[in-house]
Amino acid sequence: MDAGGLGFLVAGSRREFVVLNVDDFSKQGSSQGCPDYICQICGDDIDILQEENEYFVACNECAFPVCRTCYEYERQEGSQVCPRCKTRYKRHKGSPRVHGDEEEEGSDDIESEFASSIAGRSSTVHPYRVSVAESSINSWDIDSVSITNSGASVHFYEEHVGTPTNHHALVVHPNTGEIMRLRTRPINPNRDLALYGYGSVAWKNRVEWKRKQQHKMQKVSSDGEGSDLNDFDSDRDTPRCAESKQQLSRKLPIPSSKINPYRIVIILRLAILALFFHYRILNPVHDAYWLWLTSVICEIWFAFSWILDQFPKWYPIKRETYLDRLSLRYEKEGKPSELAPIDIFVSTVDPMKEPPLITANTVLSILAVDYPVDKVCCYVSDDGAEMLTFEALTETCLFARKWVPFCKKHKIEPRAPEWYFAQKIDYLREKVHPEFVRERRAMKREYEEFKVRINAVVANSHKVPEGGWSLPEGGPWHGNNVRDHAGMVQVITGHDCVMDDAGNKLPWLIYVSREKRPGYDHHKKAGALNALLRTSAVLSNAPFVLNVDCDHYMNNSKALREAMCFLMDPVLGEKICYVQFPQRFDGIDQHDRYSNHNVVFFDINMKGLDGIQGPIYVGTGCVFRRHALYGYDAPTATKPPSKTCNCWPISCCLCCGSKRKCLKAKKKQENQKKMKCRDASKQVHPLEVTGGENAALVPQEKFEKRFGQSHAFLASTLLENGEGCRFDMLKSLDDCIHVLSCGYENKTQWGKEVGWIYGSVTEDILTGFKMHCHGWRSVYCMPRRPAFKGSAPINLTDRLHQVLRWALGSVEIFLSKHCPIWYGYRCGLKPLERLSYINSVIYPWTSIPLIIYCALPAFCLLSGKFMVPELPASLRCSGVESA
Questions:
Q1: Is residue 275 part of a domain?
Q2: Are 70 and 196 members of one domain?
Q3: Which residues does the Swiss-Prot or TrEMBL record annotate as the active site (predicted)?
Q4: 3-class secondary structure per residue, 3-59
């Protein structure tokens, strides 16, 4: 468009016109007119990075010139690939994360990204930069002009006489309505204007996208000024804050200087093993053939076991969490906490082997956890139905009213009183509250009195009344017969009337004892945990579940937040089934003579597994996703469709096979739809789920075969994000008694595909293996302060009994249908992860070849024959002559 013969062109869309300078085309230098410094999409000048002092390069493969704004637009709104070479754009320093960035390797720059996001949000007014302005301009050169209609988006001017010689472009500031002057880029009048990107559809889309993003950030910056954010919160594309685009955790690979020497040693050992077996197999001992063959078989088994143990350690990693970002995202000032609810399971059986004082300390550390009170529910499973455990929990509730506010006021660690007062450290360190010393002394005295009351309860439990135990209300205690009693549920804390001394509400504490009858297989710990899973679904139905043993107290009050950094991560969280914490122990001697710390397993092997598909489940200190415990598959990312026969000519003979496959796939899908319609038509009593946007009719018969015949529990499995945390006490407790009955799991998938898996005393390995087979991945979290600490065997007898139980469980898995050698193929289990599970179930069998191999030298001495070939005569003669 001609602009009066003054050397101007007007470009833009219907909503925006920009004046471009043409006369400067002849004045520009060769460096200024280089097309490599001009965006080929929008025509804008490419930024100069301040740190590197170089032009921004979006694609490292072909260096196709694209500005930073178009690069961000393509990553967030477009196809995320370079227009020229079709290579996926990698994330540059300071750029917000998008889906798919977690798959890229290399170092991370979370700190710089966080800083840049904060810096971008600090200013209240965000300058509007149109596509013809240079992005390196740091300030606006504003020339105020009177405007008759400030609300119009298009402004015209009739004269250019007063335009300065540098021919600045004139645009309208979006906030003040003033006309502003920007430096322009000279263009060649002989070229088509569309080649510069001005006025094209792509240019319009990017201008609109930039305006939308700046409008959103202005709303965020005006949040503190009382602006209306109802529409803002409802927009899914609107970030709640600048930190919402950042991950809550990151993966830290082991430095190459540390891991590469270990890898080289593995390769060298493999080469030496190959040479060794080459010699052993090609040089048999004919005089003692059976001794030689037995020794070779044992050596092959040892080599195979070593390989299984080494290769899962090939890529160990560490992880780092950001608790401050978790709080910024889900705990905003003046608003209710958005952290996910969590149910905590504490399992105990015999109070004689597991003292009530130890269980009480574990419960106290949970009640005082640094997490929103209304988001925590603690369930204690008493599988022995002991009156002693119930009375100890009642006393624990009374002491918790004083202990919990003391912990939260002074932020003490750990929050188990037995181990807090036993610490051999300076407890005054970093304490500035003037009343701390006085309150600590008073609390220590209260705890000593609490211990005396617990000891009295234990002493009274040895004197069983003739008619059995009875409740304080006068009713009989249902657990007088340990092997034949009804289910029991008692809410101890969590009522509005149960407050601590500071006037705050305590977390829910619920006592649970499942029903037991003769003739039923109760499946020990796995059955008790499944009973807790159903009970918690009826009462609180939190989306996440923490499982701890009664002797593992919470040593880090922020352990739940550490786990939420992974499970609530917007990018990686939905693929994680559980977060496993390492086991740490108290009361171990200085030299650890019984190897209770298991340093090799928890500090080396588990890190290696975390780099593959995740660590195995070790039975305690693990935060689960409830949806994964129900046996559902992990969410899968939608992949773009592959090439079909339409890509090839009709005459091409290579398409015959692909056409047939397409036809077969279509027929299979149609048959599956028909079968689903038939199954749905057979259901007479559907399960109706109401109260949400996803209300639907689900076939009840299908759910009953999987989860059992409890309407309340079936309805809870279809709710999301812990809905239904407020429940009707009487009605819910009746439903709890139903799901606690010993015959509830008959003819269902409990213990087979749902919940903790039965069939082994080491149900932890089997349960984690099934989840990984469903495509889930797990995470190993090692915070600086250990999350949980427990009690370890202090004598050789207990240690041997523990190791024997682990070995027996591995043998049971090896002999079952869930053996990883032949189970779970064509599913989500990765090959190296399978090798680790195979190693965990075959290690007990190594004892057999080890015993045989140790006995072979004795057989050789008795028989006078050796399992290795003798040296040739020439070598022996040379050796004698040299001697």
A1: no
A2: yes
A3: 383, 764
A4: CCCCCEEEEECCCCEEEEECHHHCCCCCCCCCHHHECCCCCCECCECCCCCCECCCC
Verify that 219 and 346 share a domain, yes or no: no
Same domain? For 231 and 359 the reply is no
For the chain, report the end-to-end CA distance as a whole number of angstroms. Answer: 105
Residue 709 lies in a domain: yes
**Is there a binding annotation on residue 549?**
yes
Q: Has 525 been labeled as part of a binding site?
A: yes
Closest to 585 (Cα-Cα) out of 553, 538, 629: 553
Whether residues 219 and 349 fall in one domain: no
Q: How confident is the model at residue 7 (pLDDT cuts 50, 70, 90)?
A: very low
- Tell me the residue type at 146: S
Peptide bond into 518 cis (omega under 30): no
pTM: 0.68
Note whether 376 and 240 are same-domain residues. no
Number of structural domains in the chain: 2
Tell me which residue range forms the domain holding 445. 341-463+476-542+682-747
Helix (H, G, I), strand (E, B) or coil at 644: coil
Q: What are phi and psi of 478, to 5 degrees?
A: -70, -15
Nearest C-alpha neighbor of 527 from the set 768, 805, 752, 358: 752
pLDDT in tens, 27-70: 444 334 444 578 877 777 787 776 666 778 888 778 888 888 88
Mark which of 722, 747, 772 sits at the end of a domain: 747
524 is in an annotated binding site: yes
Annotated active-site positions, please? 383, 764
Question: Distance of alpha carbon 296 from its chain centroid, rounded?
Answer: 45
Percent of the chain with pLDDT over 90: 25
- 272 domain-assigned: no
- In angstroms, rounded to a whole number, what is the distance separating the alpha carbons of residues 257 and 249? 24
Which is it for the CA torsion 551, 555, 560, 566, positive or negative?
Answer: negative
Distance CA 529, CA 346 (A): 9
